[in-house]
Amino acid sequence: MHFHGCANIRGTRLSVSNTWPCPRHRDVGQFTSATLYADALQLLAHSRVIDEITVRHELGPRLKGLAQKRPRLMPDDAEIPQGRVSNRVASDLLREVNAFGWTVAVHAHPHKGTQQYSLSEEGYLALQIVRSSPVRFRRLVTAELHKRYVVPGWFVDRLWKINPRTGEVLLPGPPKDWQPRSLPWDENAWTPLYESLTTQSLETAQRCCAGELPISQERWIETVRQAWSRLSTATRKRKAAHAGTNERVNTYRPRKRLAMSMLEAAIELLFAPVPPRAHRHDIAVSGNRMYVISNRSPRTLLLWCARLEDLELLFYTDYVRAVPGRLLFPVSVFRDAPPNPDFELQESVTAPDGRQLFYHMPRWNVHRATFLEELAESYHRISRNCGALLYVSLLDVRDDVCRKLRMSASLFEEHLRLTFRELLDPDSPYSMSLDSNIREDQSGGAGLMRRPVWQDNVPYFSIAVAPKQKG
Amino acid sequence: MSSDFFRVSSKRQEPVLSSRYSCLGLTDNPFPASPGVQADSPDPRENGSIYEPSIRHNEEALFDSLLIPRDDNPYSKRLGFVMDFATQRGMGIGKTCFLIYQKSRIEGDWGKDVTNGSFVLAAAYIRPIAQTRKFWDFVRQVAYALNDQNIIAKAVWRLRYLCGDLPDAVLSSAGVGDPASTIGNDSWLTSMGVNPADVFEAVYRRLAAVGVEEELAKCLGWYGHDARRFTDVYLRKRTDSFWRKQGTELVFDHLVNTFATARIDHAFLLVDEVEKIVRYQNNDERRAFIDHLRFYLFDGNCESAKRGFFRTVLTIHPTLQELMLSHWEASGLARFAPLSGELAQKYTVYFRPIENDMAETMVEAYLKRYRCNPATQSLHPFEQEAVVEALIHKKRVPGPMLVFLHNIVEHAANSGWSVITRDSVISFAQSQEPTEPVLDIENDKLLPPVKADLLSEGLNRGNS
User: Fold this and answer.
1) A362·B448 Cβ contact <8 A
2) Residue B437 has pLDDT above 60, yes or no
3) Is A404–B458 a contact, with Cβ atoms under 8 angstroms apart?
4) What confidence tens digit (pLDDT) does each residue in B375-397 have?
5) Who among A370, A385, A400 is closest to B459 (CB)?
6) Cβ neighbours of residue B7 under 8 Å, at least 6 residues apart?
7) Omega before B30 within 30 of 0, i.e. cis
8) CB–CB of A343 and B459 under 8 A?
9) Rounded to whole angstroms, how far apart are CA atoms B261 and B209?
10) Relative to the CA of A270, which of A337, B223, B266, B340 has its CA 20 to 30 Å away?
11) Worst-scoring range by mean pLDDT, A304-308, B199-203, B241-245, B437-441?
């Protein structure tokens, strides 16, 4: 058995055997894509020294929303909302790249006064990996993030602890058809309606997870209620500050508040230092910061979901037709040895009990028939359920296929690309078409934050599949 | 021989006995190929002219008692509704056909028959263009409908007759035959020794005398008798700005004065598809529209309200009722024509799905026109149960049933059937079934099974 020393851990000594080490830092940057690291390295190579201002100006226009996602867009691709990286992202990015040891700080700029950085020796090696293999670079980022924050390994492990059978976890949300109007700030009492919606959301989630969600109804309602009352008193000042005004905020949106309360409650019940169904911490914690993923700011969880999805450790979607809320499942697993070459080892991320982290990467040449079959099945089911339309949301199909085959979004894109190549064969059973027009439900609001499916640097949003006409 | 460059489509041949439908005893397919009614189509199957009044006898009786003024019905209403009662899909229940039939019924003899000779009535059928959000835009469409459907022209012909300047010989000849070719025709007037310009002037002077605006009176006098010329000379030259500022005055004062001078007592506005207006309106537009309706139909300071000239029928759906209700009540219109509650029943003509015998009557009316032997009096080539089966298959909604019958007649003609039985209807319906999407509602509540088990072999090769 492996014993992880805890002498270096600051704060309370709660760490014992079989616990993940206490994270060295918690200041994770407010961005989600690993390509930003790659772009920062390229920029360093090109400019010799960089600072925040250079990063902000040179990283150029990117897809807005969940943003900074994979390939850069052409500046004249006007249909898709784009934006530059924010000051916050620029400074977080530089801080993290520096923390990974890829840069060294040089003198401050003589006129601007900002701290400047240049490429270190490790940074140069990382740059070589960026240029040779984006996948290897993602693995490197995973290792660096794990070293600094512990979250990547711990989070995957936790998903498997919550649902030991499949790792699938549903974070319940309010029913989709409940769309109330804004209410005055003071009308924040917890009503029987909210309680029944809270109960309903858990019941739906339990039904979809086949009872694998280890949350009791009483605790769920009580935790959501507490989160609701905390948000009802705590967020007013923050909202006003966010709006850049000293005026009091007079209204709030009950749906959003209930959704945030449910998310907070889910973090509290599922991602506490003590895992569900257990009695001991599985991660060392320091002092008053008990939660690795803050239970007072669900944003941290959302941020990590997006990052870990980009690193191919897990998959998540907020658009499951059957159930409101967020569906999370790992596409990687801790195990002793890989049963076949479909599992790829992640170096430097080892569980406290010695198991290693493997990505599930089904090989195309072995599983292509399964992929095509499941793609067509998902398409037909989704098409049937939205009124037998020819073109349906490619993102819905992607989410469904990834869930069934436990593959990452990146691997889906790769397999889809190969599928298209195969479909050129006259004997292939299907013809397939993709469309890059943004669907209405993705042109604004939360839909804008949804990851598109990239093919040859073009984001696609709709898909049509039809049996090929013979003769 | 002319080249293909100048080729035009060949005129459709009159159906002959040897047509492909002769095995069914028909000269052509008797049923409409496309759903919906196209009032201007020359094809009787599509323009609503094949109409069997007995099917909607109850609805017609209600329509008459509600809206048609008669000596024995002096308190007929100024506003009524037509609404479908069909389940699921209201399209094709027969509202448009009904309205078009009522229009032809009223306008044929200026309402002599329906009012027992008490009143002179006109009727216009109005199908609003989608996104008609403003009242002035609606009013413009009313003006165009009154002109395009020759109601203005006919009023001018009556004015020519009534203004008293024509010699008696001309007046007595004008009453014979189609007025379009007599008193409405300038050449005819010339041939009768009358200078048309004198008639134009007489009409103009008469209208000007009753307060019709100068330019309009002149255009009506000189061009109003010809709908196309009146469109070119007057209507088409009115700008949006005109319709916004003066459109309501034109329709609800000046045209009403014109009609009244032509001794027309009431005009029916049969408005179809009100959802084309209401759905696109925002809250304020909806409220303003309904306020305007009240002003110009009931109690505003305008000729139409004073005379109770327009009788309006609005075709609505249950969802529209909901959209309009709060504004209807806020504008006070609920007191004049309630949209909800028990009283609404008295103002609404409901269209219900049809019964078996109605369907048979209707099918017979269509078949009658296309029989090889017009003397045949039956549902042949359909068996009675076949018609009932088709009706039930289309949820007792007549429109979809007619299109279904069209398809089955095509199939029967191609297959050489001589009779269409219940079984053949059932098997044909089944062969068409997949066009209706089947929602997998129960399974949709569950997530599909996962195919990969990461704790064992991952994605099993056997899955493929």
Assistant:
1) no
2) no
3) no
4) 777 888 888 899 999 988 887 88
5) A370
6) none
7) no
8) no
9) 10
10) A337
11) B437-441
The pLDDT, as a whole number, for residue B444 is 61
Tokens of A108: 């401050």
Q: DSSP for A36-100?
A: HHHHHHHHHHHHSEE-HHHHHHHS--EETTTTS-SSPPPTT-TTS-EEPPPHHHHHHHHHHHHHT
d(CA A315, CA A333): 13
Chain B residues closer than 8 Å to A208 by CB: 445-447
Mention every residue, 6+ apart, whose C-beta is less than 8 A from residue A48: A118, A119
DSSP helix/strand/coil, A309: helix
A410-453 pLDDT, tens digit per residue, is: 999 999 999 988 887 777 788 888 877 777 666 666 777 788 88
pLDDT digits (tens, 9 = 90+) for A220-260: 999 999 999 988 887 666 555 555 555 666 788 899 999 99
Q: Rounded distance, CA B366 to CA B107, Å?
A: 24
A367 phi and psi angles, rounded to 5 deg: -115, 20
**Chain B residue numbers touching A345 (CB-CB < 8 A):** none
CB atoms within 10 A of CB A438: 18
Q: Which one-letter amino acid corresponds to residue A201?
A: S
Buried b (16+ CB within 10 A) or exposed e, B197-231: eebbebbbebbbeeebbeebbbbbbbbbbbbeebb
Confidence of residue A113 (pLDDT cuts 50, 70, 90): low
